[in-house]
Amino acid sequence: QVQVVESGGGLVQAGDSLRLSCAASGRTFSSYAMGWFRQAPGKEREFVAAVGWSGYSKYIADSVKGRFTISRDNAKNTVYLEMNSLKPEDTAVYYCAAARAASDIVRISRVSYEYWGQGTQVTVSS
User: Is 36 within 8 Å of 83 (Cβ atoms)?
Assistant: First the structure.
């Protein structure tokens, strides 16, 4: 089992950057696929980015491609979401999720993730 805790959210202006971090507990972090999702008020939780075991396999949602990047540091049990050129429509609660994986693949579907953090609020003002 793994527990994940997000941090790094806040209030920023359009065009600014933020880096979210997701710290995971447990000694088997490197065997988990990791993902970021977000949920805006009144909307469904949506996929943002995912990374496989090694950090080489990645997938970014079209809505944030070119602005957001995902990375992981297995030595630190941490996953990052670097967000640049933020827009007001990026305002949401951002969640980190973990999924035990049998291979170095990314997971895009929300239902494939077993463990979730409590989320961190990102607010982008215009």
Answer: no
